[in-house]
Amino acid sequence: MSTDTRTGGVPERDPGRLGRLSAAFGRRIVTALIAVTVLFLITPVLVTVGASFAGEWTGVFPTGFFTLEHWRHVLGFADVAGAERALGTFQFQVGTYTVTIPFRSLFFSLVIALGGVLINLLVGVPIAYAVTRYDFFGRGWVNTFAVLPIVPGVILGIAFLRTYPNLPSAIALVIGYSLLKVPYMVLAVQSSFEAMDLRQLEESARSLGASWPRTFFTVIVPNAKTGVIAGSIVCWTLAAAEFNFTYMVYSRGPRPFSIFLYNNITNSPILQTAAAVSIYFLIVAGVTVLLQATGQRGFSVGGGG
Amino acid sequence: MAETVQLKGITKRFDETTAVDDVSLTVEPGETLGVVGPSGCGKTTTLRTVAGFETPTDGEVLFGQEPVTNVPPERRDVGLVFQSYALFDNMTVQGNVEFGLKMRDVPAAERHERSQELLDMLDIGDLGDRDPTTLSGGQQQRVGLARALAIEPRILLLDEPMTGLDAQLKNRLQREIGSLLEELDVTALYVTHDQEEAMVMCDRIAVMNEGVLEQVGDPEEVYAEPANAFVADFIGTSNLLSGSLDDRRLDLGFATLDAEVQRAAHQGKVTATIRPEAFEVSESGAFEATIQESFYLGEHVQVLATLPDGESLTLHLDPRLEYTPGDTISLTVDPEDIHFIDRS
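YS: structure for the whole thing
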């Protein structure tokens, strides 16, 4: 018998040499491995964000801090050559005032993506509800197709150009984004629905005198609030940054954010690219904080674009 | 005012299976009728038919004189209480209780007054502003009941409302809810798999098995005079003995007992039910049995014994005596405690 009391009520056994090593160092080794991996992945991001404020980036690390020049360029505050690659501004008249909206590309993409999110809500919430609540013919297929992001953006883009050659860019983008991102909405809302007893909630509300539509909008959807919010945020960000489909379909009108990023990556000086890419990193960081706030820590999505 | 609720020949078939088979039941005004039976016996389907969530394949549901078989659930004025509480987490406790009144366009002030009154009655008057998820199981079930009662339902339907609660809380809630339903004069249908709970809560009990109504009666009647072997076995423990009856003499083969005969039809070959607590140990009893095992259960000792013909017997005997396996005991039964069941 061992005198080791740490095992408590668990039947004691001799763990062997490897087992003892694992008990002593296992946890520390795993922690260290995770730390190294995270560091490896996050270093390029941090270096890039840092570089966007640097004067020079020739070696591994940028030098010559601290300047806001590159940010002025990409945000469209510098009136210099290459201004066509900035986010741009957007002006309109209200009476005698001129309203200037900065960061035009970003603003445009967010609005277009919001249109996509509205369609996602209209389509995704009922699908999530139906596959969770009812057993119907073809339920398995609906479920699979709804959650598989089955069409790559490039393919969908070509199909759109071929089928609707005269569709305005903005409308094509809204429809395309909604198709591409609907799985994320269905998944998020479905996970909320699955956590509740849909049938009993619905029957309680109806027995109390609520019609079916009223039950759906005053009880069922509000109870899935966290899923709806998380799904909307995820769909919104992924759509705003969607490149493949945007690149295929965009022809005229205001320039979407992902095209702005692309133009900077291909044509701008390296430090200006760093500033442009940093905008996206900042958005991702902001969204992560938002998602944490809605309490959907466990929700994960694959890469976008 | 409370009214009668009638089920007339309700049958419900799902594809090939018959969940409820020709069930006719009358819930008297203001009474709590328990529907008990093992899982899958059709008791929940019966309740859902009354609520309007199932349309019977055959038969009719009447509230008072009004047929409601084709009235949708939201226009039936029934109160539903579930095992899972099914509270609306997007509203406060008060919001939950007021929901039904809101659907009926009752003015806010009146809604508030009525919900507060109910919450006070259920002893949770200070929880109105709370979020339902922060309440204990017992408190949540009180909210569920208040919500169902707020609309002054024509019938209150309770589907296993106590099943998720621990024994002590269950006992307390049973007493409180029982007296509240009586005070409010609510007609109620109480579905449970727990026969003891049904006996505590209900004025009458309907026993169901495999979609069929086996017996309806008050708790004493169903317990003491089960209509058949299923009821005898489901409601408590019972000993089934076969023998032949000649006038008032029951011949078991190894012994002859005096018996009270309730129905003239019971003559010749019969099955008798005798409850475990009806037996008594005596110096010179009517028959003998050999003790197999005994379990001390506090208020009585449960003894498993074998009769001379090899059949086994469950007895609840005086806990002050000792019962040694292998010993033989001599037993008597009061003639009034022997009941005969209809053979089907």
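YS: worth flagging: DSSP finds twelve helices and two strands in chain A.
IM: good catch. Also Chain A touches chain B through 18 residues (CB under 8 Å).
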